[in-house]
Amino acid sequence: MSIIRVENLSIRFRIYHDRSPSLKSYFANLFKRKSQTTYSEFSAVNEVSFTISAGERVGIIGRNGAGKSTLLKALCRVYEPSDGEIAVDGRIAPLLEIGAGFHPEFTGRENIYLNGAILGYTKQQLIEIESEVVAFAELEEFIDTPVKYYSTGMYMRLAFSLATSMHPDILVLDEIFAGGDAAFLAKAKSRMYAMIDNANIMVMVSHDHQLVTSLCNRVIWIDHGKVEGDGLPEEIVGRYLGGKDLG
Amino acid sequence: MKTKARTFIEEVHDSRYVLSQLVLQQLILRYRRTVLGYLWTLINPLLMMTVMALVFATLFKAELKTFAVFLFAGMIPWNFFSSVVTQSGSSFINNEALIKKIYLPKIIFPLSITFALLIDSVLSFLALSVIIMTIGGSLSWALIFIPISYLLLFFFALGVGLIMSVATVFFRDLQHVVLIAMQGLFFLTPILYRPDELMGNLVWFVRLNPVVPFIDLFRAPLYLASLPTSGVILESILISLSAMSLGLFVFLRQQRQIVFRL
What we know:
heterodimer; A: alpha/beta; Rossmann fold; 8 helices; 38% helix; B: mainly alpha; 12 helices
């Protein structure tokens, strides 16, 4: 059984007011007695706590810059907590951005292995899924062409097919992604849903409130890095949209 | 309760497939779509050293053949060391997009650079050895020491590379500073000249230069056809252990901050 436990999580970034400190100013400041702070801290995620248990499908909503993506990235270990703790039990799939780690000079096939390795597949797994990924992406003809010659749609199809061929315990999604023509989109959606169904826990960030209400059984509303609401999808989405209309 | 060091080692071990893919990526990319392909790894240092051997043998009025072997034995470890140090510096910066999207053990970025450069270095070493033999160099049993020389050099370069990779994230100026510093260090390392040919104030610098024993590790078997002296071996073991410990120390302390400062 998978579980995600987040306790008092804060993620703080430093914002430098003038510019990133240069070597010169670092050494200059070393010899100055008073330490002047040229930066201020910004909490993208501020003392957030929640627990997600097996079977939950959680949608995270909120305005742009509310800290949703930072929270997801923290779950995937990209950002280390500045304070608090995250405990994740289960194999987590980092699907924050598909195609991260694709190399334009590499062929489609080489990218399956390079990107697959980055996504955490073993060599054996990649050998097994290679032909299925190519077939699903409908790229049999172009698989040995460098991906820089691919159209945007072809590129998206390959990245999507590869990213969705694993079956993680915990699925973390930053917007439902899929590109390509109508036919591929339909195919991609059903693959995506199958993947969500197979996952033990799903956490997604989305601005598509209908999608969130239909896919999730719990919604967390984040505003200014804090949990503003946590509960049933209709209720929280309704409150979020209501509040938005007022202000 | 697992110790931190244990988890770190396990994590690196678990990511050996990503590591090998990243090494492969660097080796393939450098020469993709060039007519001669990977041969450039061999041709490039070869032409470079030929030019240097010709120029300096004339300048120093040395015998070309002996000087070529002398120079080659010094350039092999130097080229490896200096490329590792300069390229590690940008290893995190160049992979910023990836580091901000997917969690990977950070050490694989400088580590993959060091491995890729090691493969390059060994290959050009082999090519140059063949050429040295054909122009009349001599084989000696001392050559079996070369793998050990490489091992010690590898950890020394990796240690310095780790420090550079972390430091450059915090101080971007280092990318430019290091190029000039390596240029200067090259002349303070007895590669073009014999250590005993040096006079004046610079002698002290050369004596303190940590790269010197690693040059000797290669020069003794290749040029003098003898094993390095035990003093040199001991010194380089000490230096590479300290470089590696310091590198790991700096790296493990700062690795969590890297993503915030990219």
